[in-house]
């Protein structure tokens, strides 16, 4: 008897793959459910990569879903749906970076497809809410450097220039703030 439960990403993979397979036989309801399920996962996946351009996430989600729709006939059911969708999402993201004259900061191997479905949009919203609550408890001299460097992706020099703090103060603020957050998380029930 197999007592090893499925990982959450494996359960999502199975559910979405089953919907896609039904969709490929003409089940429109399954197709709508599949696209809806993919959209939340794609949104979370793309948000992690476009930390400075969050307004672009929704456009990229729609571009990716359109590509999935247009290329659905090429999906090989013998392969994980998540790997196929991640490949399309990464291609669309690379296209976006090229179009905006930016370097691609992430290069995820395709065999890491479980990362695409490691979380969904609702988990990301809950995590954001929790993080905002924890950050609000920190003094401003720690909170601002963490928010700007770790959440918004600004460099230490950019934050120092914008806030008038020294680069050393930014680094110390991030370090001490992260230590304080670690203690807060450890002490949470």
Oligomer: single chain
User: How does the major sheet shape up?
Assistant: none
Unreliable spans: 106-115
Architecture (CATH level 2) name of the largest domain: Orthogonal Bundle
Tertiary shape: elongated
Tell me the span between the first and last alpha carbons. 35 Å
Q: Strand-and-helix sequence, N→C?
A: HHHHHHHH
Contiguous helical run count: 8
Task: Classify the beta-strand content into a percent band.
Answer: under 5%
Mean pLDDT: 80
CATH homologous superfamily descriptor of the largest domain: RNA polymerase sigma factor, region 2, helix turn helix motif
- What is the count of distinct domains? 2
Helix content: 55-70%
From the helix content, strand content and strand pairing, which structural class follows?
mainly alpha
Characterization of the model:
With 189 residues, the protein is mainly alpha-helical. It has two domains: 8-120, Orthogonal Bundle (Rna Polymerase Sigma Factor, Chain: A); 137-187, Arc Repressor Mutant, subunit A (Orthogonal Bundle), CATH 1.10.10. Helix content is 69%, strand content 0%. The chain has eight helices and no strands. Helix 1 crosses helix 2. The longest helix is centred in the first third of the chain and has 22 residues, at 28-49. The radius of gyration is 20 Å and the shape is elongated. It starts with 7 loop residues before the first helix and ends with a helix. The model is unreliable at 106-115 (pLDDT under 50).
